[in-house]
Amino acid sequence: MESFVASQSPFYYAVLEWPQSLAGIMANVNKIPHRLHILENLCDEHGTAGSPSHPDSFLKLLSCLGTSPPDEQPVHIRAFNSSMKAFCRFQPVHTSAAMLGAIEYFYVGISECLALHLDKWGQSGRQNHYAVHEEVDEHHAADLFAISEGHTLTTQQKEEAVMALHLGAYYLWNLYADMAKQA
Length: 183
Description:
Heme Oxygenase, Chain A
């Protein structure tokens, strides 16, 4: 459990900055219904209707685990965050939405696995960060995929969207691999 706790502490910064990547996509979206899907995701991230923001729920998780975020964002987290924000702000919507959709989709399974382990360790009743993501991220992934597919795409753009799916998996895989190395 010690290595898990050590890996989660810096991950706070990825949780904190994730909405900035979503906002990068939103800045490029022309279709209002698509903007509303991203806005819903952003509202979930920032907390609505009395629910805590995701950074706040993650801080509660860290507190339950007896730790807190490091004072400075580690380089592997900064690399992930910078890559996400730049890609989402400067790439076409069909690719940026596909990339973040892939990350949200994979995060459902990651959250399910981590929620089960936290339950085994007696932590599930004290916090619910991963249980919440297990539920909401499937919807968020579907919305992002719909945004990506909601454009008339050429064959080349379809290939770019597929590459963005792979890129999302690559970034997420490397983030977790780097977190494991640092723990």
